[in-house]
Amino acid sequence: MIRTKMKLLISVFMLTASTIAVRAADFNILKYGAIGDGTTLNTTAIQKAIDECYKTGGGKVIFPEGKFLSGTIVIKDNITLHFEKNSVLLGSTDLKDYRNLDPFTEGLGIDVGWALLVAVDAKNIKLEGEGTIDGQGSAIKAKHILTDTRSEGQRWGLRPFLLRIVRCDGVTVKDVTLKYAGAWTSHYFQSKNLHIEKVKIQSVGVAHNDGIGIDGCQDVVIKDCDVVSGDDALVFKTTSSKMACKNIDVSGLRLKSSQAGIKMGTESMAPFENIKITNCHIYETKNGGIKLLTVDGAHLRNVLISDITMEDVRTPMLFRLGSRLSVFRKNTETKQQTGTFENVIIKNVKANASANAQLMPPSGILITGVPGHYITGLTLENIEISLAGGGLAEHARQTVPEAIDQYPEVKTFGPRVPAYGVWARHVKGLKLKNIKFNLASNDLRPAFVCEDGLDVEVSDWKLPETTGAESIIRLENVQKVAIENIQGKFNAKKLVLVEGNSKDVSVKK
Fold this sequence. Notes:
The chain has four helices and 38 strands. It is mainly beta. It has a domain at 25-209: Pectate Lyase C-like (3 Solenoid), CATH 2.160.20.10. It is elongated and about 80 Å long. It starts with a helix and ends with a strand.
């Protein structure tokens, strides 16, 4: 009996020691021939370190101090890429050094998918540490255009993403810095259990530098990241109809962008649902603060965005349900019917809008479906927006194109909209509660225009001093509208102007 117990204890000890040895095994890329001089191509050496680590059951692949030039690197199961302080993974400027392991077509119709770091169908992977992944996007472009004479709109898709995660489960990206991608900075596709925390992104210099791209992913946490991007800073997409963006919690982000701060769509085939975004600061965006767009058949529903501040943003909010109906993975997908937009809440938002906007004079919020397809159950509550003003009397009667099948962008509805505050069209169950607008100059457009609306509630608005407008609120072809407690020093011919085939409009002061 004693000898049996001893054998058992020895076996347990050996197994534990073996486990500790495996866990402690780090695979330093220097041992596999990598040279951190910024000029030697290290693709083979780095991949060998990853492959050897994978064969042992996983562990850490260490990037020490230095600049390690590389083409496409494939991350495998149970691998942690650990970037030590002052380590840099540097993307090659030669497009021949990159591979496309999961090709697809993005929203403008360009074939894309090449990447510096990529994981496909992997489990339990991690990127961590104080180091940097630098794609050298501008240098790649400069070299590329020397031999590719096509227009930029046609050739950009060959440039590599910085990080692509494809159909993976259990992914952590923490503390690392992502810089200067050749195209999108980070793209997570049809993956589950993602944790993205304290990531810093500085990715500008070429077009299409999206920051964090979540494409048909589920069970996602994104927190405390700082994003400066040339394209949308935080963007949710569904380029395939087969997997929704679902169960996502975002908090504590700082977002600066040459496009939008927070965006859903344009690629929008599978649903966007059960998404919560809170406590974020959006600043210096040139094409929208918050933009929720479903135009390719997706159901966008059960979304909460709250406690958001915005500074110097062009057009703080755009909500769009449309019928573009594009297909992005043409070998496996088919065209869908128009989707839905329902049960979205935006609350506790304070925004200072840029005086130089896509539509001039600037407007605060654009909401529009298409005929027969209504944005339903949208609630905006506790919203304050400061705007430049400057709208003229003729601007108050601006006709806005339907653009039913067009790319959904603020400029699509230009050159301006007929309300300085909220312009809404094709809406049902719209609730606008405790809204405040500030104007730097007089605006002769209404604060609110609603066209083709049903069951609309407008309550507890605080409006700036204006004079000379035809009306403060204009309603066209609406039914069941309740307006209550509109406050301000405005001087207009009418508080509420009701036109067209409208009925059941109630106004209480």
